[in-house]
Design a protein that fits this description.
This protein has 15 helices and eleven strands. The chain has 337 residues and is α/β, with parallel strands linked by helices. Strand 3 and strand 4 form a beta hairpin. Helix 1 crosses helix 2.
């Protein structure tokens, strides 16, 4: 699968094939990544939804290894961009360079940047300046980049996995709300348990390294993305997603007390879209071809946690967006108006 903008030919896929392929991907990734099943599942959900994910966790928890292994398993091109304060937009999207042919004539030739890959790891994205961060915006949203007034499509599937370190905040540039909103899900990377640490040591310090097998390709991923969007959702389930979203706004009549006390701005409509898309994939992974209320509730936390802006009172009292969303899920139940 190349990263030059060529789009794969898509063959129809059944729900059973979807589930079997997804299970095979998770199984092969699990050969390399110890534990972290929920993280692997949510990363796969984001990929199959055609979105992008933001991972937050301390260094050394396998974020780079996760996306690299995923690229190996689905036989797609992989690119890693290490964000630093001196990184420029052209270092990401590419630039035009002057080349001279045999006759001595000089012409411009486009040198593609690392964004031209199927799976892109944007490592420590909050270490780059806002100007460089914004270079990802068009690629993430439109799956294309524009250089010197020429727009170039990116190859499908296209998936950005950005990471940020929550500990070292000196010299960082926090992502603006508009850019955070473009990530389908925000995933927290938990620290491994003691048993998982032992298994990590056994796998990474021995003579043999685990080798995942290829179980899908770009064409299969695109077919899975199309099937996921075709999953039907009942009007009352969509209405519940809308109620969950509106409950994140402090001026809404159904907002829980915690939202009114600690939330400055609620989630945008993209939060509802993320819940529904993720809910459709969760349903398929569970062997169902319809979205249930529980699918939306399972997707609510990663879909909304980066879209709420808390006020100063919340920061002073140590209230997190996860706590606020948990309160919303307890207060706003299916079937209630």
């Amino acid at each position: 699968m190349s990263g030059t903008g060529q789009q794969p030919t898509v063959s129809p896929l059944t729900a059973e094939q979807f589930r079997a392929t997804a299970a095979a991907i998770e199984r092969e990734v699990g050969k390399v990544i110890v534990g972290q099943r929920e993280l692997v599942r949510h990363t796969l959900i984001t990929l199959l939804a055609g979105g992008n994910a933001l991972l937050e966790g301390v260094p050394g928890l396998g974020k780079t290894m996760l996306i690299r292994t995923l690229a190996q398993v689905i036989d797609c091109t992989f690119s890693r961009i290490q964000f630093t304060p001196d990184l420029m937009p052209a270092d990401i999207v590419g630039t035009n360079v002057i080349v001279e042919d045999e006759s001595g004539q000089r012409t411009f030739r486009f040198e593609a940047g690392p964004i031209f890959a199927n799976l892109v790891l944007a490592d420590e994205i909050n270490r780059a300046t806002p100007k460089t961060q914004s270079a990802l915006l068009e690629a993430m949203q439109e799956h294309s980049v524009t250089v010197a007034k020429t727009t170039r499509r990116l190859a499908e599937p296209f998936f950005v996995l950005a990471t940020q370190n929550p500990l070292e905040m000196e010299g960082t540039y926090p992502l603006p709300e508009a850019q955070l909103d473009r990530f389908l899900l925000k995933l927290d990377v938990p620290f491994p348990s003691e048993d998982e640490l032992v298994e990590i040591a056994n796998r990474t310090t021995g003579a043999e390294e685990p080798r995942p097998e290829v179980v899908a390709d770009g064409q299969a991923i695109v077919a899975m993305q199309e099937l996921a969007r075709a999953v039907p959702i009942a009007p009352h389930v969509t209405a519940y997603a809308a109620r969950l979203l509106k409950a994140t706004h402090p001026n809404d009549g159904n907002a829980p007390p915690m939202v009114r006390s600690y939330v400055r701005y609620g989630a945008s409509p993209r939060g509802m879209q993320a819940m529904i898309l993720a809910g459709k994939i969760i349903a398929l992974l569970d062997g169902r071809y319809n979205v249930a209320f529980d699918d939306l509730r399972a997707a609510a936390l990663p879909a909304l946690r980066h879209r709420l802006i808390l006020n100063f009172e919340a920061q002073a009292e140590g209230i997190t967006t996860d706590e606020v969303i948990g309160e919303i899920l307890r207060e706003v139940l299916p079937g209630e108006q």
